[in-house]
Amino acid sequence: MNDHFEPLFDAVVRIDKLPAAGRSVSVDADEKTRAAIATAMKLTSVQRFVANLSVVPLRGGLRAQGRLQASITQPSIVSFEPVSQDIDEEVDRVFLPVPHGHQAPAPGSEVFIDLEDDDFPDHIDGPEVDLSALLIETLALAIDPYPRREGEDVASLDVDLGNGEGGAFAALARLKDKGEN
User: Fold this and answer.
1) What is the rounded distance in angstroms from the CA atom of residue 62 to the CA atom of residue 100?
2) 146-163: string of b/e by CB count within 10 Å (b at 16+)?
3) 37, 44 in Cβ contact below 8 A?
4) What are the two backbone dihedrals, phi and then psi, of residue 13, each rounded to the nearest 5 degrees?
5) Which residue ranges make up each domain of the chain?
6) Helices H / strands E in the chain, number of each
7) Which of the residues 5, 11, 118, 125 could staple to 131 if both were Cys, CB 3.0 to 4.6 A apart?
8) H-helix or E-strand containing 40?
9) Alpha carbon separation from 6 to 3, 35, 37, 76, 131 (Å, rounded)
10) For the chain, how big is the Rg over CA atoms in Å?
11) Would you tell me how many other CB atoms lie within 10 Å of the CB of residue 34?
12) 41-53, pLDDT tens digit by residue?
């Protein structure tokens, strides 16, 4: 199994070459990249994928802040008709180097995570941070997992769900009634 993530677009920032004042990272995905994002996310299409980030050095790592805006289309969970969604998400993530002498926890060991604490930083090893993974993750978390069109539900499809006289449970009830007589 290949655990190497192949970025869909270039948004790599080298920490060792990042100016003290920081820099801007802008992504405006072209048609080919948007099609690749749609395929990777199992969407019908991605019509727009734009991100503007301000990246500044922070304690040997970096902080990326900005906004991701996207327009996507995916099938409705009820009728499979296309459903559009506009996404406008704030991005704020800190990437810090792994502390010296820090070892990864052993498999099966307990790890304490304070859920009341602010969002803890991502750890990096090496001089580069690929912000494309951050942007794809932000998109994935913003997508409606159960899209449906306005006013659409299963009852609007006029589908017999088997709850009436001819359903499977009615046949079982008839069998039960025959056994009691």
Assistant:
1) 17
2) ebbeeebeeeeeeeeeee
3) no
4) -120, 130
5) 12-153
6) 3, 7
7) 11
8) helix 31-41
9) 9, 15, 12, 29, 12
10) 24
11) 22
12) 999 999 999 999 9
Containing 172, the helix (H) or strand (E) segment is helix 168-180
Provide the whole-model pTM. Answer: 0.73
Position 166, amino acid? G
The total number of residues written for the chain in this structure: 181
In this structure, are residues 139 and 68 in contact, taking their beta carbons and an 8 Å threshold?
A: yes
For residue 97 the two structure tokens come to 């180097």
Which SS3 state, helix, strand or coil, does residue 130 take?
A: strand
- Tokens 């019509």 belong to 47
Taking a C-beta distance cutoff of 8 angstroms, is the pair 125, 100 a contact? no
Q: Is 12 within 8 Å of 131 (Cβ atoms)?
A: yes
Our CA angle for 39, 43, 46, nearest 5°, is 85
Cβ-based neighbour number of residue 10 at 10 Å: 11
Q: Model confidence over 72-113: pLDDT tens digits? A: 999 998 888 999 999 999 999 998 887 666 666 678 777 666
Which position has the token pair 């992504």? 27
